[in-house]
């Protein structure tokens, strides 16, 4: 019995210590389709202002995603009113159409670089907003209902 508790403790310790870089890691589920006007928001309390962090957009997609790339509009609102807005493009498939990312089966998980070496030098709450900016080739209006994206996440990691 005692050896079972020790074994269980070792497993729990190894699972929690595998992600020592994580400072913030949260996902939000996209219901059925991602409408072009739907914005996913993450409220983040400023981490240690003396350290630099790497920021990532995480997402999960299924084989229902029909594009080879993904355009995202990511906005970071600082506590004292400053706003940074970026339009980002990420590659989602190999040239042969095979999805990038990790995972077995129909769902792939992608960890996409957003910013490197960020210092959160303002105290308070930061808000990160993410929406898709997909368009069909030659079309002015965006894709109304993006299929195949199931979850959007945001992650902050320690740099070392």
Automatic annotation (TrEMBL):
Concerning NCBIfam families, the annotation shows: GldH_lipo (TIGR03511)
Kindly indicate whether the keyword Lipoprotein belongs to this entry: yes
Q: Give the matching InterPro entries.
A: Motility-assoc_lipoprot_GldH (IPR020018)
> Know the name of this protein?
Gliding motility lipoprotein GldH
Query: Which controlled-vocabulary keywords does the entry list?
Result: Lipoprotein
The domain of life for this entry's organism is: Bacteria
């Amino acid at each position: 019995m005692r050896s079972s508790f020790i074994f269980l403790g070792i497993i729990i310790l190894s699972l929690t210590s595998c992600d020592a870089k994580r400072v913030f890691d949260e996902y939000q589920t996209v219901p059925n389709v991602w409408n072009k006007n739907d914005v996913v928001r993450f409220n983040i309390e400023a981490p240690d202002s003396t350290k630099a962090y790497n920021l990532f957009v995480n997402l999960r997609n299924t084989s229902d995603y029909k594009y080879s790339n993904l355009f995202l509009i990511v906005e970071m609102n600082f506590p004292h009113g400053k706003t940074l807005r970026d339009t980002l493009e990420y590659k989602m498939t190999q040239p042969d159409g095979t999805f990038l990312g990790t995972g077995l089966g129909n769902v792939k998980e992608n960890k996409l670089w957003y910013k490197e070496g960020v210092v959160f030098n303002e105290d308070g709450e930061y808000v990160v907003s993410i929406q898709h900016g997909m368009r069909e080739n030659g079309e002015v209006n965006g894709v109304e209902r993006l299929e195949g994206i199931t979850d959007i996440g945001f992650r902050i990691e320690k740099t070392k």
